[in-house]
Each structure stands twice: as structure tokens, then as C-alpha cells.
Design brief:
This protein is mostly helical. The longest helix is centred in the C-terminal third of the chain and has 21 residues, at about 65-85. The chain contains five helices and no strands. The mean pLDDT is about 95.
């Protein structure tokens, strides 16, 4: 697991969104919710819809995510989606 985490970190640093999502999941399992949320938000802002849903659930649960944080993440998600559409 330690080796996998290392390679996910390398991939995430080079911009891999799925690796960032995986790091968030690993941190949740380890009980590091603050750190997990940071990874999840970065992935959501980069266009990962599953991560955006996780941020939304965290907002609805009332823990860790504020309404402003969710709104800014949602805006960044939409901008990322528009960039992907314009590239196609």
C-alpha cells in the first residue's frame, strides 16, 4: 500500500486526476479526512464528477465543506468541463 500511495502521489503531482481521486480514497480509509478532502476537491476542480459528488455529500452532511468551498469547487468543475468540450 505504501508503494502504491507513492506512485499515486507521483501521478497526482503530474496532473493525473484519477490518481488524485485514489489518494483521497486512501486518506479516507486512513482516517485523514481533512487531507482526503483536499485531494477530492483538487480532483473535482479538475473535472472528476465522482469527486464533485463526494464534495456535495460532505456539504450535505455538514462536515468539513462550507457552502462557499462547494460553490467555488462547482464553478471550477464547470470551467474544466467547458475546457474539455472546447478541446474536442
Amino acid at each position: 500500500m505504501k508503494k502504491a500511495t507513492h506512485f499515486f502521489e507521483l501521478a497526482a503531482m503530474s496532473g493525473d486526476v484519477k490518481a488524485r481521486h485514489s489518494l483521497g480514497c486512501i486518506e479516507v480509509q486512513a482516517g485523514n479526512n481533512q487531507r482526503a478532502l483536499k485531494h477530492i476537491i483538487v480532483a473535482a476542480r479538475a473535472g472528476d464528477s465522482k469527486c464533485l459528488e463526494m464534495v456535495k455529500k460532505s456539504l450535505m452532511a455538514g462536515d468539513l465543506v462550507t457552502k462557499n468551498k462547494y460553490e467555488s469547487t462547482l464553478r471550477a468543475f464547470h470551467e474544466s468541463q467547458m475546457e474539455m468540450k472546447s478541446e474536442a
